[in-house]
Amino acid sequence: MTSDGIAVQPDASAAPRGRRSRRAVDVPTLVAGARKGDARSVARLISLVEDASPALREVAAALAPHTGQAQVIGLTGSPGVGKSTSTTALVRALRQAGKRVGVLAVDPSSPFSGGALLGDRVRMQDHAGDSGVFIRSMASRGHLGGLSWATPQALRVLDAAGCDVVLIETVGVGQSELEIASLADTTLVLVAPGMGDGIQAAKAGILEVADVFVVNKADRDGADQTVRDLRYMLSLGGRHSEAGHWRPPICRTVAARDADNGVEEVLAKIEEHRQWLEASGEGHRRRSERAAREIEAIALATLRGRMGDVRGSAALGALADEVVGGSTDPYRAADELLGQL
Amino acid sequence: MTSDGIAVQPDASAAPRGRRSRRAVDVPTLVAGARKGDARSVARLISLVEDASPALREVAAALAPHTGQAQVIGLTGSPGVGKSTSTTALVRALRQAGKRVGVLAVDPSSPFSGGALLGDRVRMQDHAGDSGVFIRSMASRGHLGGLSWATPQALRVLDAAGCDVVLIETVGVGQSELEIASLADTTLVLVAPGMGDGIQAAKAGILEVADVFVVNKADRDGADQTVRDLRYMLSLGGRHSEAGHWRPPICRTVAARDADNGVEEVLAKIEEHRQWLEASGEGHRRRSERAAREIEAIALATLRGRMGDVRGSAALGALADEVVGGSTDPYRAADELLGQL
Questions:
Q1: Which string of DSSP letters, residue by residue, matches A322-335?
Q2: Cβ-defined contact of A323 to B291 (cutoff 8 Å)
Q3: Is the CB of B330 less than 8 angstroms away from the CB of A152?
Q4: Measuring CA to CA, which of A136, A139, A264, A289 is 20 to 30 A from A228?
Q5: Which of A232, A248, A280 is the last residue of a domain?
Q6: Residue A111's domain is classified under what CATH number?
């Protein structure tokens, strides 16, 4: 990622990663700075989260009281549908409405798509220097597929920094749509005419995760057909056909246009969805479910970590020898091992 | 699997699986029966292990004092190299040498290969009724790929039943070679002329796990070339070239022949390898490492089970709501959750 157009830079001026992580961190000062909208503090906190700094737990604890306010909007779609252009247009419209906006762009680690993404990213330049916008690219890594494990914590940093809206943009490949839906209050699925996205969406279970469909590049041939395809697929049922459920609207945009681009309607549908989330209780259910899954993941990672500590340890070696010698069995040995954790 | 030719049948006469598992189980009597060589007791114990019966822990504990004697020989190779024929020939030779033999055949769950395997299995008929041979097919299931998670425990049943040698036969697909090597004292890798197995072996890291190579169907064209290929690949190094390491010999067999089939030489090489394992300490290291991995796997499964108990529980829901409300953070919540396990 280039440093152009990034209000929040990945702390490039600081010491190398390894040293930076071990440097003493003044978490309360950083959190206070972030809450005042200081871009450097926000950047530093996200870096601490991304680097899984030893201060991670302190950061999480300090952020907690200041979270829960931001509306989280996920934005996904296949490469080429215009995600970055749409993000730019949404950010511009939200800024005009006086909202403070955070953007987390989760790049796939795939090396061959890096170039194209960097090119897209430069288009965000028009927000550079706007202190009401925080933009941060995150590496996607770990076992989660499309979304970085650090994304939920980075989201909390932007939440605590007073963002009214946080946009999470991710390339729609494989698992990532499902993951973004588990993080976002409202998930936008972008499609474009003539890309067979409708069919792909149906296959990938996108219908189940989309709260709002956006047919971008709606001035192109085939846009009507794409809308019809989506409408037909929605008519086939799934959860959307049940009473009391949200029926995803289909918007048309030409995000690359400076005006009359349809983005206002998307924002209106997002607002409608927000109200539905609140009225139906689904909003709280989603956030609670999201937190539960995050707690579980951390708990399992902690256990795995402790298990890693005993791997190759004298204790495990001794237990293994007892099993080989027949003086105990592997189940009793496992119990003893767990007792030592 | 058919019941033909199986000294130890999968307890087909008993009640259906679910009911059988809940039936009261007299583990001490079964273990005593197995130690006396009673085929029904052995079959029943392996079924309890395979079904993950509630009595699993009791079975493991009762078996432990009687284990550690059997020599475990793994046998793997691509489909078509003649694994079942070779197993039959090895069993016959071992019986002639007065050894008590157990066979665990791990079938891949792949439905399209089932037919061929059943066909192969019928060839084991000539050992039917021989009380010195226990033969059991096991389903391969779970996340372990080629080998069933129950295999190590089934192996202990046969060990406790007084088998001098247990052969584990598995179709060499993907991970299973590596898994069989982690279970076996000595791993035989079967190849056949003209199948490109040599190249495949090099690719799949088979060179690292093979203790003895067996070129079966050695009367066919191309057998010399296959031997040369293997020899060349072994000469390229790896662990085998280091001093004090075992250098895998290459045997030739025509396992389908009743006599003069080369199997005696394979048994001689297995015996050489056994002596090397003992003299070098590698034998104990392998068994200890194997037990350590099994203990770890059971411990992790236990933890996951406990985690499953809290999934959707009131405790997790309450913690999640606290995270959503900002009164705690997910790390502290995870600690609390772990405290409750």
A1: HHHHTSS-HHHHHH
A2: yes
A3: yes
A4: A264
A5: A280
A6: 3.40.50.300
Residues A229 and A314 in one domain: no
Could you tell me if residue B320 is inside a domain?
yes
Is residue A249's pLDDT more than 70?
yes
Is B132 within the bounds of a domain?
yes
Lowest mean pLDDT among A274-288, A292-306, B46-60, B123-137: B123-137
Touching A: B residues 151-170, CB under 8 Å: 152
B292 interface with A at CB cutoff 8 Å: yes
Q: Is the same domain home to A154 and A296? A: no
* Closest residue of chain B to A296, computed from CA coordinates: B334
Residue A145 pLDDT > 50? no
Kindly state whether A299 is in contact with chain B, defined as any CB-CB distance less than 8 angstroms. yes
Q: In B, which residues are within 8 Å of A304 by CB distance?
A: 300
Nearest to B157 by CA among A336, A333, A329: A329
Q: Is residue B119's pLDDT more than 70?
A: no
Q: Touching check for B278 and chain A: CB below 8 Å?
A: no
Q: Are B249 and B294 found together in one domain?
A: no
**Interface contact B330-A295, CB threshold 8 A:** yes
Its domain, for residue B42, covers 7-66
- Can you name the residues that pair with A194 across neighbouring β-strands? none
User: How many contiguous H segments (helices) and E segments (strands) does chain A have?
Assistant: 15, 7
Calpha distance A23→A15 (Å, rounded): 9
pLDDT of A120 strictly over 50: no
Report DSSP state, residue B125. Answer: G
Pairing of strands B71-77, B186-191: parallel
Same domain for A150 and A235? yes
What is the predicted pLDDT for the residue at B259? 86
For residue B327, give the amino acid letter. Answer: S
Long-range contacts, B204-209 (Cβ 8 Å, 24+): B204/B177, B205/B177, B205/B178, B206/B172, B206/B177, B207/B233, B207/B234, B207/B238, B207/B240, B207/B248, B208/B238, B208/B239, B209/B177, B209/B178, B209/B180, B209/B181
B143 touches A: beta carbon within 8 Å: no
The verdict on residue A227 lying in a domain is yes
- Portion of chain A with pLDDT greater than 90, in percent: 35
Is A297 found in the same domain as A189? no
Q: Is residue A276 part of a domain?
A: yes
Mutating which of B49, B329, B341 best tests the A interface, going by the most A Cβ atoms within 10 A? Answer: B329
Asked if the Cβ–Cβ distance from A327 to B64 is below 8 Å, we say: yes
Same domain for A187 and A312, yes or no, is no
> Do B62 and B86 fall within a single domain?
no
Question: pLDDT band for position A8 (50/70/90)?
Answer: very low
Question: How many separate domains does chain B show?
Answer: 3
